[in-house]
Write a structure and sequence with these properties.
- The structure holds two protein chains of two kinds.
- In chain A, strand 5 and strand 6 form a beta hairpin.
- A six-stranded mixed β-sheet of chain A has the order 1-3-2-4-11-7. Chain A has a three-stranded antiparallel β-sheet with strand order 9-8-10. A two-stranded antiparallel ribbon of chain A has the order 5-6.
- By secondary structure, chain A is α+β, with helices and mostly antiparallel strands.
- Chain A folds into two domains: about 180 residues, 3-Layer(aba) Sandwich (D-Maltodextrin-Binding Protein, domain 2), CATH 3.40.190; about 200 residues, D-Maltodextrin-Binding Protein, domain 2 (3-Layer(aba) Sandwich), CATH 3.40.190.
- By secondary structure, chain B is an all-alpha fold.
- Chain B has a single domain, classed as MetI-like (MetI-like fold, Orthogonal Bundle), CATH 1.10.3720.10.
- In chain B, helix 2 packs across helix 13.
- The chains are: A alpha+beta, B mainly alpha.
- Chain A: This is Sugar ABC transporter substrate-binding protein.
- Chain A: It holds the Pfam family SBP_bac_8.
């Protein structure tokens, strides 16, 4: 036996090159029931966790009882792989019948004819229980491509257990300003001896930035689908956070791993590393549980000091129907059930937000867990107030989070000034929306 | 001839597999010259994708990341593999156990679980920084700081030196002992023996490992994807070419451009491999 000769080496290397194909990225959906028979089978996909799956399945059990001719096969997974998987299903010509749709992706699908126009479906889908603004979340022009799976907003949660421990007073959550937040957070950090940072929120999350933009009298996305935020307003956002970071109200650069798609249980607030943060209100129950039950739910700062109100009513996800669904009638029956059935909504709970239909929301609220009731009340108050209108996310909107994440990280580490980062964001954002 | 037939029999699964490779291969070449959003049929766009590449700063960043990663981590991991193989080759009691221990990271290194584990080890409040803290040093966020994130991934790559190490071990075993005996008789030191006997006779193996490792490292995806949650962050510091390609195709629904990126990567890998083969003439020594 000899060492490898030239031809052998060539063959080996050639094989290695050929065998090393692109990495396989396929990942199956985690899946639910799969019963076959004469019934029409619908495929319904969404993102979320096991707790949401359990509640969803309970609602579907009720649907199956009421509609013995329809079987719903559900599949779910985490939000980030969900997005990638969904598009490949469309590309392969095998779209799900009913799907959860991100608001920032809606027009990317709708404008390309992939979704069923729900406005054309006559009496099969009753949306009369929804307010105009709720219905508007899925409207593109005169067409409707999605129904909110629930309503939410963003809220500021503060861990009272920590503030009590350190003897810091929580500001009034309806009227506090961004300066109040900075002062409060700095007090917490100081009082804890630097063990707990007063606050941290995701600088790159567009929903957070949208509130700030609206408070400054601008629309983040304009009515005609352009980027409306000015460089000055963007600079203010980045500079405010950098100021808090310098004052140790915010954790130091690199403390937070921005890429951890961490669950509530793994979040920095649950680990008592920070005392407050921004969350979507539909997650309040989960966050309060993992934080020990002492969370206070405050409004976003600056609501009474700004040029106008910043908060808005949003949805965690829309329900959309594929244009190529083989069973549109049955799918609409299912969607109508999800929107209007009180027993179903009660079973599904509020993991996707407060039911979009106001009569349904009113009917199920008394039976909810206390924390869900608190989140529902928070939302109901906002709904009763006059908030400036918001416009649907234009095509390309889903790119902005990554753009902002990259730029805000460079500002965090001092590689760019807030002004330079802001100018770059506005420029890149405008390009992303026009491409 | 009979021997050949047996060979083809063993190759059969691979030959069948190639049918499933050639189809997508050809389609992706076509898509590389189209504008394709996955939802509506592709449109022929000629060289538009190529023109876009020239001005695409994110692409340039991703190539920079991939080049740095490859040019730093491949020599380091091969060096580590050879060093450990030399030690093990000298005859260690329980060689099989050590070999398995060192090989283990290669099996695990690109797995999601290990990358997650590294994120915890190298997090701002992770084990590494707790250790540094005892020495009075506040370490950075090794995975969240754009200055360090790529180095952390390079370290992870170097740690997975087991596969080339096993191949080196096999190669070392095939060098006839008589050469060493003759060299020792002539008074050659251990270092001299390594340089004049081991390295030349091992050079085909080194060459194989080099080509293999470079191709694999140009195609790195999982480490960057998991470490950065798919973003290539912090601040694009771990934006590997393959990750950027994935983002373009599946994140931004620009599969035409993603296909052209795939072909660009193929051309780059082919180019580097060709250079490797040309350079091999000057340093790879075949005994027969």
């Amino acid at each position: 036996m000899n060492t490898v000769d030239r031809r052998g080496a060539l063959k080996l290397a050639g094989l290695a090159g050929l065998a090393a194909t692109l990495p396989a990225c396929g990942r199956g959906f985690g899946g639910g029931g799969d019963q076959k028979g004469d019934a029409v089978e619908l495929n319904m996909v969404w993102w979320g966790d096991a707790a949401r799956a359990e509640k969803t399945q309970k609602a579907l059990d009720l649907f199956h009882t009421a509609n013995p001719g329809i079987r719903v096969r559900t599949e779910y997974q985490d939000s980030s792989p969900y997005k990638d998987k969904l598009v490949t299903r469309f590309a392969a010509g095998d779209p799900p019948d009913l799907m959860a749709m991100r608001t920032d992706s809606l027009r990317e699908y709708a404008n390309r004819g992939a979704l069923l126009d729900l406005a054309q479906q006559g009496g099969k889908l009753d949306l009369s229980g929804l307010t105009d603004s709720a219905r508007g979340l899925g409207v593109v022009g005169r067409q409707n491509f999605g129904v909110p799976s629930g309503l939410n907003a963003i809220g500021f949660v503060v861990d009272k257990a920590l503030t009590d421990k350190f003897g810091v007073q929580i500001p009034d959550g309806d009227t506090w300003s961004w300066e109040d937040l900075a002062t409060f957070a700095k007090q917490v950090t100081t009082a804890s001896g630097g063990k707990v940072y007063g606050t941290n929120f995701e600088v790159w999350t567009i929903a957070n930035l949208i509130v700030w933009t609206r408070q400054h009298g601008e629309d983040f996305y304009t009515a005609d689908g352009k980027l409306g935020i000015t460089a000055a307003t963007m600079t203010g956002w980045l500079a405010m956070v950098q100021k808090m970071r310098a004052d140790k109200a915010f954790p130091p650069a690199g403390f937070i791993d921005p890429n951890g798609g961490a669950s509530a249980a793994q979040s920095y607030i649950a680990k008592k590393a920070i005392a407050s943060q921004i969350i979507p209100t539909n997650n309040f129950l989960t966050f309060d549980k993992v934080c020990g039950g002492q969370l206070q739910l405050l409004r976003i700062p600056g609501e009474t000091q700004g040029a106008r109100r910043g908060q808005s009513i949003d949805t965690p996800a829309l329900w959309s129907v594929a244009a190529k669904s083989k069973h549109p009638a049955e799918t609409l029956t299912l969607l109508n059930f999800l929107v209007n059935d009180v027993a179903g909504a009660k079973a599904a709970g509020t993991t996707r937000g407060v039911p979009a239909s106001r009569p349904v929301a009113t009917a199920i609220t008394p039976g909810l867990e206390t924390d869900d009731q608190r989140a529902s009340a928070y939302l109901a108050e906002l709904q009763n107030e006059k908030l400036p209108p918001s416009y649907s996310y234009p095509i390309g909107a889903s790119k902005l989070t990554n753009i902002l994440k990259s730029i805000s990280t460079e500002v965090e580490f001092g590689r760019k000034t807030p002004a330079a980062g802001a100018a770059e964001f506005v420029d890149a954002g405008q390009k992303a929306l026009s491409a | 001839m009979r021997k050949d037939r047996a060979a083809y029999l063993f190759l059969l699964p691979w030959l069948v597999g190639i049918l499933f490779t050639v189809g997508p291969f050809v389609v992706s070449l076509y898509l590389a010259f189209t504008d394709y959003n996955l939802l509506t049929p592709p449109h022929w766009s000629g060289l538009a994708n190529v023109r876009e590449m020239i001005g695409d700063v994110h692409l340039h960043q991703s190539l920079k990341v991939t080049f740095i990663y490859t040019l730093v981590s491949v020599p380091l991991s091969l060096g580590a593999a050879l060093a450990v193989a030399m030690v093990l080759h000298r005859g260690v009691r329980g060689l099989a156990v050590y070999r398995s221990i060192y090989y283990l990271p290669s099996l695990l290194g690109s797995s999601v679980a290990i990358v997650m584990l590294w994120r915890y080890l190298f997090g701002y409040q992770g084990v590494v920084n707790q250790f540094l803290g005892r020495l009075g040093i506040q370490g950075p966020g090794w995975t969240s700081d754009p200055h360090f994130a790529l180095s952390t991934l390079i370290l992870l790559h170097v740690w997975t030196f087991g596969a080339p190490m096993v191949i080196f071990l096999a190669g070392l075993k095939q060098i006839p002992a008589m050469y060493y005996e003759a060299a020792a008789m002539d008074g050659a030191s251990g270092w001299r023996q390594f340089r004049s006997v081991t390295l030349p006779l091992l050079s085909p193996i080194i060459f194989f490992n080099l080509v293999q490792s470079m191709i694999a490292s140009f195609q790195t995806f999982t480490q960057g994807y998991v470490m950065s949650g798919g973003t290539g962050g912090p601040a694009e510091s771990t934006l590997f070419s393959n990750l950027y390609l994935y983002q373009k195709g599946f994140g931004e629904l620009d599969m035409g451009y993603a296909s052209s990126l795939a072909w660009l990567l193929l051309i780059i890998i082919a180019g580097f491999t060709a250079v490797n083969f040309l350079a091999a003439r000057y340093w790879v020594f075949y005994e027969n």
